[in-house]
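Minimal example, chain plus flavin-adenine dinucleotide.
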Amino acid sequence: MRILNKKIRILNSAQVNGLDRDVKERIADIIGKENITDEEIELKTYSYDASLSRAMPIAVIHLNDIENISPVVKILYENDIPYTARAAGTNLCGAAVNLKGGVILNLSRLNKIHQIDTDKRLAVVEPGLVNLKLQEELEKFGFFYPPDPASQKVSTIGGNIAQNAGGPLCLKYGVTANNVVKLEVIMPDGTEKKFSIYDNGPDISGLICQSEGTLGIVKKAWLKILPIPKFTKTISACFENIEDSMNSVIDIVKSGILPRAVEEIDRMSIDSANENLKLDIPNKTDSLLIIELDSNSKEEIESQYKEIENILKNNKALTINSASKKEEIEKLWKIRKESYPALARISPNVFVEDGCVPRPKLVEAVKGIKEILNLYKLKAGLIFHAGDGNIHPNIIFDERDLEETKRVKKAGEDILKLCIKLGGTISGEHGIGVEKRKAMNWLYNMETLNLFSNIKKEIDIKNLLNPDKKIPISHGQIQKIERQEIPLSDNAKKILMELKVRYNTKQKTQISQSNKEPQKNNLQILSSQSLNRILDLDRDNMTITLESGVKIKDLKNILKKDGFDIELPENENDTLGSIIATKKYINLKDLIISMDLSLYNGDLIRYGSKAIKDVSGYNIVRLILGSMGAFAFILSATLKIKSSKDNACDKIEKFEIKTDNIFYDETIFRIKKAFDPENYLNPWILENYEQISNK
Ligand SMILES: Cc1cc2nc3c(=O)[nH]c(=O)nc-3n(C[C@H](O)[C@H](O)[C@H](O)COP(=O)(O)OP(=O)(O)OC[C@H]3O[C@@H](n4cnc5c(N)ncnc54)[C@H](O)[C@@H]3O)c2cc1C
């Protein structure tokens, strides 16, 4: 959610008495006194980001060396001073303002590239590095880093990681969290940790992504880089109405072709941008679709182009243009890139909403958004990542008109509610921060919100690191909105009930994919065997939802009969639940978009949906991957599928569990406490848990 604000207004000027002199001196000894300031003019500069939220910090600390983050944080922690990391300040949800009047840590000067390793396909960078700077360096080696937010000229890798930023290319290559391999993190108390997707146990690096700077500060990041594909083809198509354009998107996805980008620009946005660009767009055009293909094979691109051209024609495209040369491609993209700044030029303020729906719901979503805009007598340009179902209505208005501003906020809320009702979510990429905390109540049940709160409380015991963000301050009073979602099966309900009973009778559980003997006498097996149903195969959305007891080889057979496939091996005898719990294949992190879980006491956790992108909440999927059944019972999951025409399974990467030291880190014990405080599920996995948690 974002208001492009031309006037800085301090809404919360809760200025505390500044930093204690002793604290200031200790920090100045580390970073130099010129790098710590409490002058009002500078405090005001750091009191806002690209959202509506404002809050004055008591000091701004500019860091020039990544090695200084930890000692500075340790001093703040010892002295109970709230602090917030800040990079370029372009986030759109108030994630980088310090609500408690604490300290802002400016990380934007920490911008070194430590290594570009094209053999290992990794770049190791500091958090303040601007996304585009990295791209420019990589280009010299013929490589790129896929996440490409529209803000990439200014936004940083650290900010992108914290917000799990996306961009046009994320349709094919995944969002930031899919492209981060390892992180060096400063924890809230100042200790340093390294987390990698290849660690034994749950994937804490995946949790840090999308945590909006509330669980740790990224000191260094290992990013996946890829060779620039040899061939690219960009297609633009004009439509008389946006419904035809959205139907084309659904048909393209259904065809099994995975373009690297599918972007939508509506009439109002076209007109705003075209005032300067003067492109030849038919008068009747209501919608422009930009589709980009890439491949190392010219033949593949040309055959995909032909198929897409037919789809566009069948959906009544008025014109279809294509380009393969750099200058021509840039010309086609120009209108997409210019349309947002053009809207910002024609109006004092622009409010960007960010909802995401399952792709087949795009037509309904666009129709509903138009009705909401009419109801509130507002105008908006629709510019969005259509291939992901990630919709951005850009509402133009004048913030000085308080009545109009109220209508804008109401419309924004109604749009989010609509996305939830359609089975989607409240943020595809911009995050929750301060501004969408209320909307979290509409999306999640109380048990899931409690789990998020518990994770934050366990990792940041003193609630000092970017406090009061992402999670509603008090939940339970605001009603969850009825969502189109896949109902729980009767057998899943039985599992919830069984765990409730076991909790009430203090019976500990061993979770298993079969009914074998338990490892220890005091344990009772709970098997996923009864959870053997495919709950939903959504051919238009290219997703499948299945219960955890389904065997992967059976899943593959079912999909193949229907002309689909999934990036998992043939003849895999294990069940879905088992391969998730053991993180048997690393690429599961890129396949799973939602999960239903039961906690130790039978509480139902529903995380994610059939929407392809979702940055609300902490990334529960990444915590369950590799959790060895010690956190929760997996009931079902939704996974991305592909066409069986696409027979490349090059992303399957087997994970070998190192037998020593299954869970090695205290952070994992803390997360265990958030999920299963009394160690009811697979209790032997965290053998020392009880000693450590009683400390
Ligand atoms: C014009 C415009 C276009 C945009 N387009 C897109 C888009 O296409 N896709 C998209 O996803 N977003 C987009 N955004 C939103 C924004 O650019 C992203 O959220 C971006 O990732 C924020 O990066 P930043 O460097 O500005 O971070 P900041 O705004 O400074 O910080 C964002 C959050 O990250 C935390 N943080 C910063 N650095 C670290 C660190 N090292 N460790 C831990 N936490 C840290 C902060 O505490 C804060 O919570 C757009 C914004 C604008 C203004």
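The first helix runs from residue 21 to 31. Residues 49-50, 84-92, 95-96, 107, 127, 149-151, 155-156, 158-160, 162-163, 165-167, 212-213, 217-218, 429-430, 466 surround flavin-adenine dinucleotide (CB under 6 Å).
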